[in-house]
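User: I'm writing a tutorial on reading structure tokens. Could you give me a worked example: one chain, its sequence, then its tokens, then a sentence or two explaining what the tokens reveal?
Assistant: Sure. Here is the example chain.
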Amino acid sequence: MVRRPRPERGAGVTYETVMTIRNLATLALMAGLLVCTHLQAAESAAKSEKRTAPVKAGDFAPDFALPDQDGRRHVLSGERGKRAVVLIFYRGHW
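And here are its predicted structure tokens:
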């Protein structure tokens, strides 16, 4: 980072004013990014398929993707028709 000398007093805009404007601009940019990220997350959640009833015996399970213990991603639709799939959820309290 290159340090620039402070302008002389009385030379128009002070160093403190410039730094305040820069800090406010940075804060506004960060707030804008936060709002955009929040809106994108809300939009994708609204687009997700909502089930009104539980899956019944004989129904196809909704498609999903989950990582395994080694970090590999598995998609249910990729396994459908190849072999039986058993999904077990552990509470995580070991």
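What the tokens reveal: The chain has a mean pLDDT of 77. The radius of gyration is 27 Å.
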